[in-house]
């Protein structure tokens, strides 16, 4: 393994344990998980190493992220991670064939991607989830009636100054896109550092 390939996200290191604490009761022991926007690969490698009975499929839109993901998987020696795929949620079809997943996990993508990726994520999840599968999203959100932390306000401002198409999304806007794809918000979990973990499921 080439250590130079490892990319370290301090935020991913900090939030991996709280996220896994919620994933464990949400996912069955024998779950097939598709991760969208795996980034450095830290979550994929660590979650899979902690729960060897899950089968984890990491992906990222950027081809140059794939070697880094593989490097983290090698670092943790997780044998239940499939080779990473280049997957852009806006591209059709997704490069996973007709495979259905028990869960689709997407962390910290919606605020650093153009708004249309939200609809694409929801529609793709609706196509590739099993009938009782879950879409799990993690990151910062704005919410009607909930005061936004100063840190998130500053973060949102910095995102929009960096790229006019970026920004923290309103949870209610995300819910609307989910509903259009046949998904509903099943659970909302407050997380450290003013983040939320949201659980989406098919409409009954």
Mind explaining what this structure looks like?
The chain is an alpha/beta fold and 204 residues long. The chain has one domain (3-107, 115-138, 170-202): Rossmann fold, CATH 3.40.50.150. 36% of the residues lie in helices and 25% in strands. The chain is built from 6 helices and 9 strands, in the order H-E-H-E-H-E-E-H-E-E-H-E-H-E-E. The protein has helices at residues 10-26, 42-50, 66-76, 116-128, 150-162, 171-180; strands spanning 32-36, 55-60, 85-86, 101-107, 129-139, 141-142, 169-170, 183-191, 195-202. A 7-stranded mixed beta sheet has the order 3-2-1-4-5-9-8, with helices on both faces. Strands 6-7 form a two-stranded parallel sheet. The longest helix is centred in the N-terminal third of the chain and has 17 residues, at 10-26. It starts with 9 loop residues before the first helix and ends with a strand. The mean pLDDT is 95.
Count of spatially separate domains: 1
Report the radius of gyration as a whole number of Å.
16 Å
Shape, per Cα inertia axes? globular
CATH architecture: 3-Layer(aba) Sandwich
Strand content: 25-35%
Taking the sheet with the most strands, its summary is: 7 strands, mixed
What name does the CATH topology carry? Rossmann fold
- Superfamily (CATH H level) name: Vaccinia Virus protein VP39
Number of strands: 9
Low-pLDDT regions: none
Under CATH at level 1, the class stands as: Alpha Beta
Q: Which bin fits the share of residues in helices?
A: 25-40%
How much is the average pLDDT?
A: 95
What gap, in angstroms, lies between the N and C termini?
46 Å
Distinct helical segment count: 6
């Amino acid at each position: 393994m080439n250590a130079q390939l490892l990319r370290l996200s301090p935020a991913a290191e900090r939030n991996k344990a709280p996220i896994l604490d919620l994933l464990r009761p949400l996912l069955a022991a024998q779950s097939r998980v598709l991760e969208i926007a795996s980034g450095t690969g830290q979550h994929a490698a660590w979650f899979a190493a902690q729960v060897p009975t899950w089968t984890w499929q990491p992906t990222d839109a950027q081809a140059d992220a794939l070697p880094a993901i593989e490097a983290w998987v090698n670092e943790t020696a997780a044998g239940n991670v499939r080779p990473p795929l280049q997957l852009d949620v806006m591209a059709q079809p997704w490069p996973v064939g007709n495979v259905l997943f028990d869960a689709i996990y997407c962390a910290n993508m919606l605020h650093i991607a153009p708004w249309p990726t939200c609809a694409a994520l929801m529609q793709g999840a609706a196509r590739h989830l099993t009938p009782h599968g879950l879409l799990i999203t993690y990151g910062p959100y704005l919410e009607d009636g909930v005061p936004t932390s100063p840190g998130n306000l500053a973060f949102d401002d910095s995102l929009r100054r960096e790229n006019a198409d970026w920004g923290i999304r309103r949870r209610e806007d995300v819910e609307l896109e989910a509903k259009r794809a046949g998904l509903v918000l099943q659970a909302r979990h407050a997380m450290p550092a003013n983040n939320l973990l949201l659980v989406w499921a098919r409409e009954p």
